[in-house]
Amino acid sequence: MEPTMAPGEVLMSQAIQPGHADSRGELSAGQLLKWMDTTACLAAEKHAGISCVTASMDDILFEDTARIGQIITIRAKVTRAFSTSMEISIKVIVQDKFTGIEKLLCVAFSTFVAKPVGKEKVHLKPVMLQTEEEQIEHTLASERRKVRLQHESNFNNIMKESSMFNDPICKDEEGTATTMGTSVQSIELVLPPHANHHGNTFGGQIMAWMETVATISASRLCHGHPFLKSVDMFKFRGPSTVGDRLVFNAIVNNTFQNSVEVGVRVEAFDCQEWAEGRGRHINSAFLIYNAVDDQEEIITFPRIQPISKDDVRRYQGAIARRRIRLSRKYVISHKKEVPLSTQWDISKKGFLSNTNVEALKNLASKSGWEVTTTLDKIKIYTLEEQDAISVKVEKRVGSPAHTAYHLLSDFTNRPLWDPHYITCEVVNHVSEDDLIYYITCSVANGDKPKDFVVLVSRRKPLKDDNTYIVAVKSVSLPSIPPSPQYIRSEVICAGFLIEAVNSSSCTVAYLNQMSDSILPYFAGNIGGWSKSIEEAAAACIKFIENAAHDGLKSVL
Protein backbone atom coordinates (compact mmCIF):
# COMPACT_ATOMS: atom_id res chain seq x y z
CA MET A 1 0.00 0.00 0.00
CA GLU A 2 1.35 3.44 -0.95
CA PRO A 3 1.96 5.82 1.97
CA THR A 4 -0.29 8.89 2.10
CA MET A 5 1.64 12.00 1.04
CA ALA A 6 0.64 15.63 1.16
CA PRO A 7 1.29 17.78 -1.96
CA GLY A 8 4.87 19.02 -1.86
CA GLU A 9 5.92 16.39 0.68
CA VAL A 10 9.05 14.29 0.18
CA LEU A 11 9.39 10.87 1.77
CA MET A 12 12.62 8.96 2.45
CA SER A 13 12.66 5.41 3.86
CA GLN A 14 15.83 3.68 5.02
CA ALA A 15 16.53 0.27 6.55
CA ILE A 16 19.20 0.70 9.22
CA GLN A 17 22.26 -1.40 8.33
CA PRO A 18 25.39 -2.07 10.44
CA GLY A 19 27.25 0.59 8.45
CA HIS A 20 24.71 3.20 9.66
CA ALA A 21 25.12 2.33 13.35
CA ASP A 22 27.48 3.15 16.20
CA SER A 23 29.32 0.71 18.49
CA ARG A 24 26.12 0.13 20.54
CA GLY A 25 24.08 -0.91 17.49
CA GLU A 26 22.09 2.33 17.44
CA LEU A 27 21.63 4.54 14.39
CA SER A 28 24.46 7.07 14.22
CA ALA A 29 23.12 10.58 14.83
CA GLY A 30 25.47 11.85 12.11
CA GLN A 31 23.96 9.46 9.56
CA LEU A 32 20.44 10.54 10.55
CA LEU A 33 21.38 14.23 10.19
CA LYS A 34 22.64 13.52 6.63
CA TRP A 35 19.37 11.81 5.70
CA MET A 36 17.30 14.59 7.24
CA ASP A 37 19.22 17.32 5.39
CA THR A 38 18.96 15.48 2.05
CA THR A 39 15.20 14.95 2.41
CA ALA A 40 14.63 18.58 3.44
CA CYS A 41 16.73 19.83 0.49
CA LEU A 42 14.67 17.79 -1.97
CA ALA A 43 11.43 19.16 -0.46
CA ALA A 44 12.76 22.71 -0.82
CA GLU A 45 13.77 22.14 -4.44
CA LYS A 46 10.41 20.53 -5.21
CA HIS A 47 8.69 23.76 -4.12
CA ALA A 48 11.23 26.23 -5.55
CA GLY A 49 11.93 24.51 -8.85
CA ILE A 50 15.61 25.52 -8.61
CA SER A 51 18.64 24.51 -6.55
CA CYS A 52 18.53 25.19 -2.79
CA VAL A 53 21.14 25.15 -0.04
CA THR A 54 20.86 24.72 3.75
CA ALA A 55 20.93 28.09 5.52
CA SER A 56 20.17 27.04 9.10
CA MET A 57 18.77 24.33 11.32
CA ASP A 58 16.56 24.92 14.35
CA ASP A 59 16.96 23.01 17.60
CA ILE A 60 16.73 19.26 17.08
CA LEU A 61 15.58 17.16 20.05
CA PHE A 62 15.90 13.40 19.70
CA GLU A 63 12.94 11.78 21.48
CA ASP A 64 14.09 8.19 20.97
CA THR A 65 16.72 6.02 19.29
CA ALA A 66 16.67 3.55 16.39
CA ARG A 67 18.58 0.29 16.08
CA ILE A 68 20.00 -1.96 13.35
CA GLY A 69 17.16 -3.70 11.49
CA GLN A 70 14.56 -1.03 12.12
CA ILE A 71 13.05 1.22 9.44
CA ILE A 72 13.45 5.00 9.37
CA THR A 73 10.87 7.15 7.56
CA ILE A 74 11.60 10.85 7.05
CA ARG A 75 8.86 13.22 5.89
CA ALA A 76 9.81 16.74 4.80
CA LYS A 77 7.68 19.55 3.40
CA VAL A 78 7.70 23.32 3.06
CA THR A 79 5.61 24.97 5.80
CA ARG A 80 6.06 28.55 4.57
CA ALA A 81 7.88 30.32 1.75
CA PHE A 82 9.28 33.81 2.20
CA SER A 83 10.79 35.83 -0.66
CA THR A 84 13.95 33.71 -1.22
CA SER A 85 13.95 31.30 1.72
CA MET A 86 11.70 28.49 2.94
CA GLU A 87 11.07 26.77 6.26
CA ILE A 88 11.03 22.98 5.96
CA SER A 89 9.44 20.75 8.59
CA ILE A 90 11.14 17.38 9.06
CA LYS A 91 9.48 14.50 10.90
CA VAL A 92 11.34 11.24 11.58
CA ILE A 93 9.52 8.01 12.49
CA VAL A 94 11.18 4.70 13.43
CA GLN A 95 9.33 1.42 12.90
CA ASP A 96 10.10 -2.04 14.26
CA LYS A 97 9.66 -4.39 11.30
CA PHE A 98 8.73 -7.35 13.53
CA THR A 99 6.00 -5.66 15.61
CA GLY A 100 5.04 -2.86 13.23
CA ILE A 101 5.12 -0.40 16.16
CA GLU A 102 6.07 3.15 15.17
CA LYS A 103 7.70 5.79 17.41
CA LEU A 104 8.50 9.45 16.87
CA LEU A 105 12.26 9.95 16.71
CA CYS A 106 12.36 13.73 16.20
CA VAL A 107 10.73 16.78 14.66
CA ALA A 108 12.95 19.53 13.26
CA PHE A 109 12.73 22.70 11.18
CA SER A 110 15.38 23.87 8.74
CA THR A 111 15.69 26.90 6.47
CA PHE A 112 16.76 26.61 2.85
CA VAL A 113 17.66 29.39 0.45
CA ALA A 114 16.90 29.21 -3.27
CA LYS A 115 19.98 29.76 -5.47
CA PRO A 116 19.12 31.57 -8.72
CA VAL A 117 20.81 30.81 -12.03
CA GLY A 118 22.98 33.75 -13.12
CA LYS A 119 21.53 37.18 -12.26
CA GLU A 120 17.94 35.94 -12.23
CA LYS A 121 15.93 37.18 -9.21
CA VAL A 122 14.05 34.70 -7.09
CA HIS A 123 10.59 35.22 -5.63
CA LEU A 124 9.18 31.98 -4.25
CA LYS A 125 5.53 31.08 -4.69
CA PRO A 126 3.41 30.81 -1.52
CA VAL A 127 2.61 27.42 0.00
CA MET A 128 -0.92 26.16 -0.73
CA LEU A 129 -2.59 25.36 2.61
CA GLN A 130 -5.14 22.56 2.61
CA THR A 131 -5.60 21.48 6.23
CA GLU A 132 -6.01 23.14 9.63
CA GLU A 133 -2.68 21.66 10.73
CA GLU A 134 -0.92 23.20 7.72
CA GLN A 135 -2.49 26.58 8.55
CA ILE A 136 -1.25 26.33 12.17
CA GLU A 137 2.30 25.43 11.05
CA HIS A 138 2.21 28.24 8.46
CA THR A 139 1.38 30.74 11.25
CA LEU A 140 3.98 29.29 13.63
CA ALA A 141 6.61 29.43 10.87
CA SER A 142 6.48 33.22 11.05
CA GLU A 143 7.01 33.08 14.84
CA ARG A 144 9.91 30.67 14.45
CA ARG A 145 11.47 32.99 11.87
CA LYS A 146 11.32 35.88 14.36
CA VAL A 147 13.08 33.68 16.94
CA ARG A 148 15.85 32.87 14.41
CA LEU A 149 16.36 36.52 13.55
CA GLN A 150 16.42 37.52 17.25
CA HIS A 151 18.71 34.68 18.31
CA GLU A 152 22.04 36.50 18.10
CA SER A 153 20.83 39.67 19.86
CA ASN A 154 19.12 37.61 22.61
CA PHE A 155 22.32 35.63 23.12
CA ASN A 156 24.42 38.80 23.31
CA ASN A 157 21.99 40.36 25.82
CA ILE A 158 22.20 37.33 28.11
CA MET A 159 26.00 37.23 27.83
CA LYS A 160 26.17 40.94 28.74
CA GLU A 161 23.92 40.22 31.74
CA SER A 162 26.15 37.26 32.71
CA SER A 163 29.23 39.48 32.79
CA MET A 164 27.58 41.62 35.50
CA PHE A 165 27.52 38.83 38.09
CA ASN A 166 29.59 35.86 39.02
CA ASP A 167 28.07 32.50 38.19
CA PRO A 168 27.73 30.47 41.39
CA ILE A 169 30.76 28.23 40.89
CA CYS A 170 32.26 26.91 44.06
CA LYS A 171 35.97 26.99 43.37
CA ASP A 172 36.65 24.62 46.21
CA GLU A 173 33.81 22.27 45.28
CA GLU A 174 34.83 18.63 45.15
CA GLY A 175 34.33 16.59 41.99
CA THR A 176 34.66 19.43 39.49
CA ALA A 177 36.48 18.96 36.19
CA THR A 178 38.23 21.14 33.63
CA THR A 179 37.71 20.92 29.87
CA MET A 180 41.41 20.80 28.92
CA GLY A 181 41.38 17.10 28.10
CA THR A 182 38.25 17.26 25.95
CA SER A 183 39.73 19.15 22.98
CA VAL A 184 39.49 17.23 19.69
CA GLN A 185 40.68 18.14 16.18
CA SER A 186 39.95 16.31 12.95
CA ILE A 187 40.28 17.00 9.22
CA GLU A 188 38.26 15.90 6.17
CA LEU A 189 38.91 16.35 2.45
CA VAL A 190 35.70 17.19 0.54
CA LEU A 191 35.31 14.70 -2.33
CA PRO A 192 32.58 14.54 -5.03
CA PRO A 193 30.37 12.08 -3.02
CA HIS A 194 30.24 14.67 -0.20
CA ALA A 195 28.86 17.41 -2.46
CA ASN A 196 25.66 18.23 -4.30
CA HIS A 197 25.23 18.59 -8.06
CA HIS A 198 26.73 22.13 -7.87
CA GLY A 199 29.89 21.03 -6.07
CA ASN A 200 28.92 22.54 -2.68
CA THR A 201 29.41 20.30 0.37
CA PHE A 202 26.13 18.88 1.68
CA GLY A 203 25.10 20.60 4.92
CA GLY A 204 24.11 17.20 6.30
CA GLN A 205 27.59 15.81 5.57
CA ILE A 206 29.19 18.68 7.52
CA MET A 207 26.74 18.04 10.39
CA ALA A 208 27.68 14.34 10.39
CA TRP A 209 31.41 15.12 10.60
CA MET A 210 30.75 17.64 13.39
CA GLU A 211 28.79 15.02 15.33
CA THR A 212 31.69 12.58 15.10
CA VAL A 213 34.25 14.95 16.67
CA ALA A 214 31.73 16.20 19.26
CA THR A 215 31.01 12.62 20.36
CA ILE A 216 34.74 11.99 20.90
CA SER A 217 35.00 15.21 22.94
CA ALA A 218 32.02 14.25 25.15
CA SER A 219 33.43 10.72 25.69
CA ARG A 220 36.67 12.18 27.08
CA LEU A 221 34.73 13.80 29.91
CA CYS A 222 32.19 11.08 30.74
CA HIS A 223 34.36 7.96 30.15
CA GLY A 224 31.21 6.23 28.94
CA HIS A 225 28.96 6.02 25.89
CA PRO A 226 27.71 9.50 24.91
CA PHE A 227 24.62 9.74 22.71
CA LEU A 228 23.32 12.87 21.02
CA LYS A 229 20.22 14.27 22.71
CA SER A 230 19.83 17.57 20.89
CA VAL A 231 21.49 20.01 18.52
CA ASP A 232 21.27 23.73 19.20
CA MET A 233 20.01 26.09 16.52
CA PHE A 234 22.80 26.99 14.09
CA LYS A 235 23.32 28.57 10.67
CA PHE A 236 25.84 27.99 7.90
CA ARG A 237 28.12 31.01 7.66
CA GLY A 238 29.55 30.20 4.24
CA PRO A 239 29.92 27.43 1.63
CA SER A 240 32.63 24.87 1.05
CA THR A 241 33.28 23.05 -2.19
CA VAL A 242 34.87 19.88 -3.55
CA GLY A 243 38.62 20.01 -2.88
CA ASP A 244 38.34 21.99 0.37
CA ARG A 245 40.03 20.74 3.54
CA LEU A 246 37.64 21.06 6.48
CA VAL A 247 39.19 21.33 9.95
CA PHE A 248 36.93 20.51 12.91
CA ASN A 249 37.74 21.62 16.47
CA ALA A 250 35.52 20.41 19.34
CA ILE A 251 35.63 21.02 23.10
CA VAL A 252 33.26 20.65 26.07
CA ASN A 253 31.76 24.00 27.13
CA ASN A 254 29.66 23.13 30.20
CA THR A 255 27.69 20.39 31.93
CA PHE A 256 24.14 20.34 33.33
CA GLN A 257 23.62 17.34 35.63
CA ASN A 258 22.98 14.56 33.06
CA SER A 259 23.93 16.49 29.92
CA VAL A 260 27.01 18.10 28.42
CA GLU A 261 27.32 20.77 25.73
CA VAL A 262 30.09 20.39 23.17
CA GLY A 263 31.00 23.24 20.81
CA VAL A 264 32.36 22.51 17.31
CA ARG A 265 33.99 25.06 15.00
CA VAL A 266 34.55 24.30 11.29
CA GLU A 267 37.05 26.08 9.06
CA ALA A 268 37.45 25.49 5.32
CA PHE A 269 40.70 25.84 3.33
CA ASP A 270 41.29 25.65 -0.39
CA CYS A 271 44.76 24.59 -1.52
CA GLN A 272 46.31 28.06 -1.33
CA GLU A 273 44.61 28.91 1.99
CA TRP A 274 45.85 25.60 3.37
CA ALA A 275 49.47 26.45 2.51
CA GLU A 276 49.09 29.92 4.04
CA GLY A 277 47.18 28.77 7.15
CA ARG A 278 44.28 31.09 6.27
CA GLY A 279 40.92 29.38 6.91
CA ARG A 280 37.30 30.40 6.36
CA HIS A 281 34.98 29.99 9.36
CA ILE A 282 31.98 28.27 7.74
CA ASN A 283 30.08 26.88 10.72
CA SER A 284 29.84 26.55 14.49
CA ALA A 285 27.40 24.27 16.26
CA PHE A 286 26.60 23.20 19.81
CA LEU A 287 25.62 19.61 20.49
CA ILE A 288 24.10 18.34 23.74
CA TYR A 289 24.79 14.79 24.89
CA ASN A 290 23.60 12.39 27.54
CA ALA A 291 25.76 9.37 28.36
CA VAL A 292 25.42 5.88 29.79
CA ASP A 293 27.94 3.62 31.50
CA ASP A 294 28.61 -0.04 30.75
CA GLN A 295 25.48 -0.98 32.74
CA GLU A 296 23.33 1.36 30.57
CA GLU A 297 22.82 3.69 33.54
CA ILE A 298 22.61 7.42 32.87
CA ILE A 299 25.84 9.20 33.86
CA THR A 300 25.87 12.37 35.98
CA PHE A 301 28.55 14.70 34.63
CA PRO A 302 30.94 16.56 36.95
CA ARG A 303 30.51 20.32 37.21
CA ILE A 304 32.89 22.27 35.02
CA GLN A 305 35.49 24.52 36.63
CA PRO A 306 36.51 27.26 34.14
CA ILE A 307 40.20 28.16 34.30
CA SER A 308 40.98 30.61 31.49
CA LYS A 309 39.02 33.60 30.18
CA ASP A 310 38.06 31.52 27.15
CA ASP A 311 36.79 28.75 29.47
CA VAL A 312 34.57 31.29 31.25
CA ARG A 313 33.26 32.66 27.94
CA ARG A 314 32.34 29.19 26.71
CA TYR A 315 30.92 28.22 30.13
CA GLN A 316 28.63 31.26 30.28
CA GLY A 317 27.73 30.88 26.59
CA ALA A 318 26.44 27.35 27.28
CA ILE A 319 24.21 28.69 30.09
CA ALA A 320 22.86 31.42 27.79
CA ARG A 321 22.13 28.94 24.99
CA ARG A 322 20.36 26.62 27.44
CA ARG A 323 18.10 29.50 28.53
CA ILE A 324 17.23 30.34 24.93
CA ARG A 325 16.76 26.67 24.05
CA LEU A 326 14.26 26.16 26.88
CA SER A 327 12.23 29.20 25.84
CA ARG A 328 12.19 28.19 22.17
CA LYS A 329 10.29 25.02 23.03
CA TYR A 330 7.17 27.20 23.14
CA VAL A 331 7.43 28.29 19.49
CA ILE A 332 9.19 25.30 17.91
CA SER A 333 6.02 23.24 17.61
CA HIS A 334 2.29 23.44 18.22
CA LYS A 335 0.88 21.54 21.20
CA LYS A 336 -2.76 21.36 22.12
CA GLU A 337 -3.51 21.89 25.78
CA VAL A 338 -4.21 18.56 27.49
CA PRO A 339 -6.55 18.81 30.49
CA LEU A 340 -4.48 18.15 33.61
CA SER A 341 -6.66 19.39 36.43
CA THR A 342 -8.24 17.14 39.04
CA GLN A 343 -12.00 16.98 39.50
CA TRP A 344 -12.78 18.59 42.85
CA ASP A 345 -14.42 16.14 45.25
CA ILE A 346 -15.32 17.46 48.73
CA SER A 347 -15.27 13.92 50.14
CA LYS A 348 -11.56 13.70 49.21
CA LYS A 349 -10.58 17.18 50.35
CA GLY A 350 -7.93 15.95 52.79
CA PHE A 351 -6.28 13.75 50.18
CA LEU A 352 -6.36 16.47 47.49
CA SER A 353 -4.96 19.07 49.90
CA ASN A 354 -2.10 16.83 51.05
CA THR A 355 -1.16 15.75 47.50
CA ASN A 356 -1.11 19.42 46.50
CA VAL A 357 1.38 20.24 49.27
CA GLU A 358 3.51 17.12 48.70
CA ALA A 359 3.77 17.83 44.96
CA LEU A 360 5.23 21.28 45.67
CA LYS A 361 7.72 19.89 48.21
CA ASN A 362 8.78 17.17 45.74
CA LEU A 363 9.29 19.73 42.96
CA ALA A 364 11.47 21.87 45.24
CA SER A 365 13.59 18.87 46.32
CA LYS A 366 14.43 17.67 42.79
CA SER A 367 18.06 17.76 41.70
CA GLY A 368 19.09 19.57 38.55
CA TRP A 369 17.98 23.15 39.25
CA GLU A 370 20.28 25.51 37.32
CA VAL A 371 20.70 29.25 37.95
CA THR A 372 19.80 31.33 34.87
CA THR A 373 19.65 34.85 36.35
CA THR A 374 21.10 36.50 39.45
CA LEU A 375 20.10 40.01 40.52
CA ASP A 376 20.47 41.94 43.78
CA LYS A 377 17.76 40.16 45.79
CA ILE A 378 16.50 37.70 43.17
CA LYS A 379 17.74 34.41 41.68
CA ILE A 380 15.92 32.57 38.88
CA TYR A 381 16.45 28.83 38.35
CA THR A 382 15.17 26.42 35.70
CA LEU A 383 14.73 22.65 35.85
CA GLU A 384 14.59 20.80 32.54
CA GLU A 385 13.11 17.30 32.62
CA GLN A 386 12.12 14.88 29.87
CA ASP A 387 8.62 16.30 29.43
CA ALA A 388 8.53 19.38 31.65
CA ILE A 389 10.17 22.75 32.30
CA SER A 390 9.96 24.27 35.78
CA VAL A 391 10.96 27.69 37.08
CA LYS A 392 12.00 28.72 40.60
CA VAL A 393 12.27 32.38 41.64
CA GLU A 394 14.10 32.88 44.94
CA LYS A 395 13.99 36.26 46.66
CA ARG A 396 15.25 37.75 49.91
CA VAL A 397 12.55 39.80 51.67
CA GLY A 398 13.00 42.27 54.53
CA SER A 399 9.94 41.07 56.41
CA PRO A 400 9.21 38.35 59.00
CA ALA A 401 8.38 34.94 57.47
CA HIS A 402 4.92 34.79 59.08
CA THR A 403 4.02 38.17 57.53
CA ALA A 404 5.09 37.06 54.06
CA TYR A 405 3.13 33.81 54.53
CA HIS A 406 -0.12 35.56 55.46
CA LEU A 407 0.17 38.02 52.59
CA LEU A 408 1.11 35.46 49.91
CA SER A 409 -1.32 32.74 51.01
CA ASP A 410 -4.26 35.13 50.54
CA PHE A 411 -4.54 35.08 46.75
CA THR A 412 -6.95 38.03 46.71
CA ASN A 413 -3.75 40.07 47.31
CA ARG A 414 -2.09 38.66 44.16
CA PRO A 415 -3.42 41.29 41.67
CA LEU A 416 -1.93 44.01 43.92
CA TRP A 417 1.61 43.01 42.89
CA ASP A 418 1.45 40.46 40.05
CA PRO A 419 0.79 42.18 36.68
CA HIS A 420 -0.36 38.87 35.14
CA TYR A 421 -3.34 38.57 37.54
CA ILE A 422 -6.40 40.71 36.79
CA THR A 423 -8.95 39.26 39.25
CA CYS A 424 -8.77 36.61 41.97
CA GLU A 425 -11.85 35.65 43.98
CA VAL A 426 -12.64 32.92 46.50
CA VAL A 427 -15.32 30.55 45.14
CA ASN A 428 -15.13 27.78 47.75
CA HIS A 429 -13.93 28.18 51.35
CA VAL A 430 -13.06 24.50 51.86
CA SER A 431 -11.34 24.89 55.25
CA GLU A 432 -9.10 27.28 57.16
CA ASP A 433 -6.10 26.05 55.16
CA ASP A 434 -7.69 25.28 51.78
CA LEU A 435 -9.50 27.65 49.44
CA ILE A 436 -10.53 27.41 45.79
CA TYR A 437 -10.06 30.57 43.70
CA TYR A 438 -11.24 31.67 40.27
CA ILE A 439 -8.49 33.71 38.57
CA THR A 440 -8.44 35.75 35.36
CA CYS A 441 -5.16 36.77 33.75
CA SER A 442 -3.87 39.30 31.26
CA VAL A 443 -3.49 38.64 27.54
CA ALA A 444 -0.25 36.90 26.47
CA ASN A 445 1.05 36.88 22.89
CA GLY A 446 -2.17 38.26 21.43
CA ASP A 447 -4.39 35.33 22.48
CA LYS A 448 -7.59 35.62 24.45
CA PRO A 449 -7.04 36.16 28.20
CA LYS A 450 -6.62 33.03 30.30
CA ASP A 451 -8.53 31.91 33.37
CA PHE A 452 -7.86 29.31 36.07
CA VAL A 453 -9.67 27.48 38.84
CA VAL A 454 -7.10 26.56 41.50
CA LEU A 455 -6.90 24.92 44.90
CA VAL A 456 -4.60 26.84 47.27
CA SER A 457 -3.42 24.74 50.23
CA ARG A 458 -1.34 26.39 52.96
CA ARG A 459 0.67 24.96 55.85
CA LYS A 460 2.49 26.55 58.78
CA PRO A 461 5.81 25.02 59.87
CA LEU A 462 5.79 21.85 61.94
CA LYS A 463 7.74 21.70 65.19
CA ASP A 464 11.04 20.61 63.58
CA ASP A 465 10.70 22.77 60.48
CA ASN A 466 10.74 26.47 59.64
CA THR A 467 9.15 26.40 56.16
CA TYR A 468 5.77 27.93 55.41
CA ILE A 469 4.07 26.34 52.37
CA VAL A 470 1.49 27.75 49.94
CA ALA A 471 0.73 25.10 47.27
CA VAL A 472 -1.34 25.69 44.12
CA LYS A 473 -2.83 23.35 41.52
CA SER A 474 -5.74 23.41 39.10
CA VAL A 475 -9.04 21.71 39.92
CA SER A 476 -12.27 21.34 37.94
CA LEU A 477 -15.52 22.71 39.36
CA PRO A 478 -18.82 22.01 37.53
CA SER A 479 -20.10 25.36 38.82
CA ILE A 480 -17.36 27.22 36.88
CA PRO A 481 -17.24 25.73 33.35
CA PRO A 482 -14.89 27.14 30.69
CA SER A 483 -16.06 30.45 29.22
CA PRO A 484 -15.76 31.45 25.52
CA GLN A 485 -14.26 34.77 26.70
CA TYR A 486 -11.21 33.01 28.17
CA ILE A 487 -8.80 30.17 27.46
CA ARG A 488 -9.22 27.78 30.40
CA SER A 489 -5.67 27.01 31.50
CA GLU A 490 -3.91 24.68 33.89
CA VAL A 491 -1.54 24.96 36.84
CA ILE A 492 0.18 21.58 37.22
CA CYS A 493 2.14 22.40 40.37
CA ALA A 494 3.08 25.82 41.76
CA GLY A 495 3.36 27.78 44.99
CA PHE A 496 5.54 29.48 47.58
CA LEU A 497 8.04 28.14 50.11
CA ILE A 498 8.88 30.70 52.80
CA GLU A 499 11.74 30.28 55.28
CA ALA A 500 12.78 32.63 58.09
CA VAL A 501 16.34 33.98 57.93
CA ASN A 502 15.95 35.87 61.22
CA SER A 503 13.15 37.65 63.07
CA SER A 504 12.91 40.43 60.48
CA SER A 505 13.71 38.79 57.12
CA CYS A 506 12.98 35.65 55.12
CA THR A 507 13.56 33.96 51.77
CA VAL A 508 10.58 33.38 49.48
CA ALA A 509 10.82 30.77 46.71
CA TYR A 510 8.13 30.70 44.03
CA LEU A 511 8.00 27.49 41.95
CA ASN A 512 5.98 26.61 38.84
CA GLN A 513 6.01 23.43 36.77
CA MET A 514 4.82 24.89 33.51
CA SER A 515 1.95 23.63 31.40
CA ASP A 516 1.68 24.66 27.73
CA SER A 517 -0.77 27.41 28.69
CA ILE A 518 1.56 28.88 31.35
CA LEU A 519 4.73 28.72 29.23
CA PRO A 520 3.97 31.85 27.12
CA TYR A 521 4.18 33.98 30.31
CA PHE A 522 7.66 32.58 31.08
CA ALA A 523 9.21 31.85 27.65
CA GLY A 524 10.43 35.40 27.05
CA ASN A 525 12.05 35.56 30.47
CA ILE A 526 13.91 32.27 30.12
CA GLY A 527 15.04 33.25 26.63
CA GLY A 528 16.30 36.67 27.66
CA TRP A 529 13.92 38.90 25.68
CA SER A 530 11.62 39.80 28.61
CA LYS A 531 12.06 40.79 32.26
CA SER A 532 8.51 40.11 33.47
CA ILE A 533 9.56 37.53 36.10
CA GLU A 534 12.16 39.86 37.61
CA GLU A 535 9.64 42.72 37.56
CA ALA A 536 6.93 40.61 39.24
CA ALA A 537 9.42 39.34 41.86
CA ALA A 538 10.56 42.89 42.62
CA ALA A 539 6.92 44.00 42.92
CA CYS A 540 6.25 41.07 45.30
CA ILE A 541 9.19 42.04 47.54
CA LYS A 542 8.06 45.68 47.59
CA PHE A 543 4.45 44.69 48.39
CA ILE A 544 5.46 42.49 51.35
CA GLU A 545 8.00 44.95 52.75
CA ASN A 546 5.62 47.92 52.40
CA ALA A 547 2.79 45.99 54.04
CA ALA A 548 5.05 45.09 56.99
CA HIS A 549 6.31 48.64 57.22
CA ASP A 550 2.79 50.08 57.15
CA GLY A 551 1.82 48.00 60.14
CA LEU A 552 -0.37 45.43 58.42
CA LYS A 553 1.48 42.70 60.29
CA SER A 554 -0.11 43.88 63.50
CA VAL A 555 -3.60 42.94 62.33
CA LEU A 556 -2.70 39.56 60.85
UniProtKB/TrEMBL annotation:
<dbReference type="Pfam" id="PF03061">
    <property type="entry name" value="4HBT"/>
</dbReference>
<dbReference type="GO" id="GO:0006631">
    <property type="term" value="P:fatty acid metabolic process"/>
</dbReference>
<comment type="subunit">
    <text>Homodimer or homotetramer.</text>
</comment>
<dbReference type="InterPro" id="IPR029069">
    <property type="entry name" value="HotDog_dom_sf"/>
</dbReference>
<dbReference type="GO" id="GO:0008289">
    <property type="term" value="F:lipid binding"/>
</dbReference>
<dbReference type="InterPro" id="IPR023393">
    <property type="entry name" value="START-like_dom_sf"/>
</dbReference>
<dbReference type="InterPro" id="IPR033120">
    <property type="entry name" value="HOTDOG_ACOT"/>
</dbReference>
<dbReference type="GO" id="GO:0005829">
    <property type="term" value="C:cytosol"/>
</dbReference>
<dbReference type="InterPro" id="IPR040170">
    <property type="entry name" value="Cytosol_ACT"/>
</dbReference>
<dbReference type="GO" id="GO:0003986">
    <property type="term" value="F:acetyl-CoA hydrolase activity"/>
</dbReference>
<comment type="function">
    <text>Catalyzes the hydrolysis of acyl-CoAs into free fatty acids and coenzyme A (CoASH), regulating their respective intracellular levels. Preferentially hydrolyzes acetyl-CoA.</text>
</comment>
<feature type="domain" description="HotDog ACOT-type">
    <location>
        <begin position="180"/>
        <end position="295"/>
    </location>
</feature>
<protein>
    <recommendedName>
        <fullName>Acetyl-coenzyme A thioesterase</fullName>
        <ecNumber>3.1.2.1</ecNumber>
    </recommendedName>
</protein>
<dbReference type="GO" id="GO:0006084">
    <property type="term" value="P:acetyl-CoA metabolic process"/>
</dbReference>
<dbReference type="InterPro" id="IPR002913">
    <property type="entry name" value="START_lipid-bd_dom"/>
</dbReference>
<feature type="domain" description="START">
    <location>
        <begin position="364"/>
        <end position="513"/>
    </location>
</feature>
<comment type="pathway">
    <text>Lipid metabolism; fatty acid metabolism.</text>
</comment>
<keyword id="KW-0963">Cytoplasm</keyword>
<dbReference type="GO" id="GO:0052689">
    <property type="term" value="F:carboxylic ester hydrolase activity"/>
</dbReference>
<dbReference type="Pfam" id="PF01852">
    <property type="entry name" value="START"/>
</dbReference>
<dbReference type="InterPro" id="IPR006683">
    <property type="entry name" value="Thioestr_dom"/>
</dbReference>
<feature type="domain" description="HotDog ACOT-type">
    <location>
        <begin position="6"/>
        <end position="118"/>
    </location>
</feature>
<keyword id="KW-0677">Repeat</keyword>
<keyword id="KW-0276">Fatty acid metabolism</keyword>
<keyword id="KW-0719">Serine esterase</keyword>
<keyword id="KW-0378">Hydrolase</keyword>
<keyword id="KW-0443">Lipid metabolism</keyword>
